[in-house]
Design the sequence.
């Protein structure tokens, strides 16, 4: 059975998704979906451990040998991202039962869990498959289900945010599909390993250069890298709390994984960064993302939107590590992918806790909420410290690696930008802290004692994991180093 885990972790949520729509009981539907998510996590953990000890895993679907048949390939990088995605899916479904019951109309909850499992299927499939066209298929599965999940938000602006995401996501997916078509036209193969072997022989062709350009724009759109980021703030701000948490922790991280795969594996480092010199585009865009997104976050009145702009800046950190063209920079990028997922997931979970007792996520509605909900308030403070990159948090570890990579390249001016952006993070985190603890709570907020359920304990579990990885960083650092080695 262990031989089939590579495909089972994708097939299981895919089969379970339509079953959820048939279960006519919201609690039973939640229990079924959550069980599936934890089983997927157990499979991903088993694959991760097997890859760490025995090397990469290749699975031929239907017994057809590649490149003729579709192949799944789980190496150190894929196993690391699969573990992250499945862990956040299991945690989200376990923690948000009450939140989902409140935010989603009862007659739509079965469809919510269906769409959630389909989104999980798509994200896992993108990471696991070694077939270029399958990447597009799973990209569409995850995207279409994400559009539906965002549209379920209580605020009518969720519909606009979902539509904007649909338009931008469709453009990005179309560009990626055109890139795949151009490569297939020249190579006659869709297998990633086969493409990797054949592209160097035809790298001089204009169609290959065009394919590279289409992939670049398409992936930047899916990654929400500045200036192709306008769909993300609304999507995160107006989606249901469970959806904001899951997408913030996983969606852009899988898009970053796709960037690694396409530019390091399919096209190769030499072609991407030495011939076409992608880093000359990636570095300035990363710097603009870090600075402009952090400045935007400071002026937001909605905390979920503030966290969304913060995510755009953190994406800039990850792509900046790539643009440094060094081993340490790549490790820093992968490490920040992992650390930021848990930090931002925990912060969105704290916002979900507040939403049980506040009418909205606007700063004025959060006045005094930290006093009436001290455990939630303290959770936000600890998550904010990780976002800033304070020592003893996991955010500090990945920023330390990034600064080390910058210094190694002699770019001292970039150190100043990273420090400046961290100060900007301190400002927007402090704005929330001020409203939580230094403003008088309203009478309605004091009187509201609605129970939060399992959300707060799971929030603290995620937060404590970020603190643990900030003190003992061996696991994420070693996993990031193994993942970076796969790409080199």
Sequence:
């Amino acid at each position: 059975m262990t031989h089939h885990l590579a495909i089972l972790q994708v097939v299981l949520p895919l089969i379970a998704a339509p079953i959820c729509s048939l279960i006519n009981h919201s609690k039973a539907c939640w229990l079924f979906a959550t069980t599936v998510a934890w089983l997927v996590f157990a499979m991903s953990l088993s694959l991760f451990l097997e890859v760490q000890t025995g090397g990469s895993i290749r699975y031929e679907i239907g017994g057809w040998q590649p490149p003729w048949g579709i192949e799944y390939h789980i190496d150190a990088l894929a196993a690391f991202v699969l573990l992250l995605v499945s862990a956040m899916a299991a945690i989200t479904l376990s923690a948000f039962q009450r939140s989902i019951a409140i935010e989603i109309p009862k007659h739509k909850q079965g469809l919510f869990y269906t769409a959630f499992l389909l989104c999980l299927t798509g994200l896992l499939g993108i990471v696991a498959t070694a077939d270029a066209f399958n990447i597009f298929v799973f990209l569409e599965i995850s995207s279409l289900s994400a559009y539906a999940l965002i549209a379920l938000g209580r605020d009518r602006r969720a519909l606009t945010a979902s539509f904007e995401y649909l338009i931008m996501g469709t453009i990005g997916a179309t560009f990626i599909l055109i890139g795949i078509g151009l490569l297939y036209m020249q190579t006659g193969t869709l297998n990633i390993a086969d493409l990797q072997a054949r592209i160097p022989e035809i790298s001089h062709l204009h169609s290959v250069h065009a394919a590279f350009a289409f992939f670049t724009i398409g992936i930047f759109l899916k990654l929400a890298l500045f200036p192709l980021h306008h769909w993300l703030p609304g999507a995160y701000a107006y989606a249901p709390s469970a959806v904001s948490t899951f997408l913030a922790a996983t969606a852009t991280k899988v898009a970053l994984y796709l960037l690694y795969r396409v530019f390091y594996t399919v096209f190769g480092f030499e072609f991407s960064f030495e011939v076409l010199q992608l880093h000359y585009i990636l570095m300035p865009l990363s710097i603009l993302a870090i600075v402009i997104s952090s400045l935007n976050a400071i002026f937001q009145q909605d905390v979920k939107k503030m966290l969304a702009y913060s995510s755009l800046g953190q994406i800039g950190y990850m792509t900046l590590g790539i643009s440094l063209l060094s081993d340490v920079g790549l490790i820093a990028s992968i490490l920040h992918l992992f650390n930021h997922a848990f930090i931002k997931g925990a912060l969105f979970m704290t916002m979900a806790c507040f939403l049980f007792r506040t009418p909205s996520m606007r700063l004025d509605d959060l006045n005094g909420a930290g006093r009436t909900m001290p455990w939630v308030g303290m959770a936000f403070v600890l998550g904010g410290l990780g976002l800033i990159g304070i020592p003893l948090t996991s955010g500090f570890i990945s920023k330390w690696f990034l600064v080390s990579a910058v210094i190694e390249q002699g770019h001292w001016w970039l150190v100043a930008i990273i420090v400046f952006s961290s100060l900007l993070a301190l400002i927007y985190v402090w704005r929330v802290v001020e409203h939580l603890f230094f403003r008088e709570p309203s009478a309605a907020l004091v009187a509201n004692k609605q129970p939060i359920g399992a959300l707060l304990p799971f929030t603290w579990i995620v937060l404590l994991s970020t603190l643990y990885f900030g003190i003992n960083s061996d696991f994420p650092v070693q996993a990031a180093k193994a993942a970076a080695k796969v790409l080199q």
